[in-house]
Description:
This protein is α/β, with parallel strands linked by helices. Helices cover 31% and strands 24% of the residues.
Amino acid sequence: MFGKMKKIQFLIIAAxxxxxxxxxxxxxxxxxxxxGTGVEDRVKMSHQYYYQHKxxxxxxxxxxxxxxTFLVGADSHLTTDDGRxxxxxxxGLDNNDLLYAHLGDIADTKAxxxxxxxxxxxxxxxxxxxxxxxxxxxxxxDDEFYEFMKDDPNSYVFVDTLTxxxxxxxxxxxxxxxxxxxxxxxxxxxxxxxxxxHSSFYDVFVMVSLDPLLYDHFIFLDTANGTxxxxxVRLIEEGVLDGKEMASAIDQEGSIFRNTFVFxxxxxxxxxxxxxxxxFAREETYFLLNQFKKWEANIVFxxxxxxxxxxxxxxxxxxxxxxxxxxxxxxxxxxLVRVHVKKDGRITWERVHMEYTxxx
Length: 360
């Protein structure tokens, strides 16, 4: 419906990129592309956005459930064919997965691909809203614009019955949480990516118990350049992603976090080897391993190398996922991971089969 309008929007963003390639000025990550957006600039921009909008990141409540699940995919490299990413989102919706995580390289950096991507996200925002929200049409059936407006999601108000809050369409948070990958930022693609997802790092909380108050913690890192960078290391050391603000506001003895899951694009271990991957600086690798230990991370999810791998280091499991792209993995296969988290905190996971193949 909005494809042509979005294509014009993304083409304007892409054109603006070319105009500022030699500029030094940096802009916020809410849709305006800037030059020189390396990890330091991305993290600074994202921290500003994250600080201003942190309360908008949804806290999921599963305290009344015996189990919740979440779905993880990687490296979809979406072009004009959205088949595999569409299949992942539909699987998550059909299975009532609490959230869907994506490990970077979501699309290759062309404006037309991001039109396809945003249309897909909006399509599933619409499906998600109709499944989980009460929907109220704002145009009277006798209104002359009824037939014209009835298929426009912006003509509806959506009410979350759990919180009794009303939302406009684009304020609804579809539980799709991507990290940024190296292909997402090539050719100054950061603005195309950030126009949709805004921040390159964030964390998400899942409330699993009310008494005592306990959360499972989901941490999403920016490793698109194969480095955390000084700014992100500083923010991690200062506890920006530790949930310390939430913990300090709760008068409770002991930790409020039960399980911790971490998501990164760049892998740490070489597939089928305990040797470190060569992309991270050695000092950063040790920093990350120590940080995962401090966070008591249960599973760290990784992408980038398009090759399945499972490693155990201390108490942490490292799962590196295959590429779910139909170009990299043209035949059907087990390209996703679904994690099951029980009421008592036990974790199991399974690989999930994808069927979509590109039409020839």
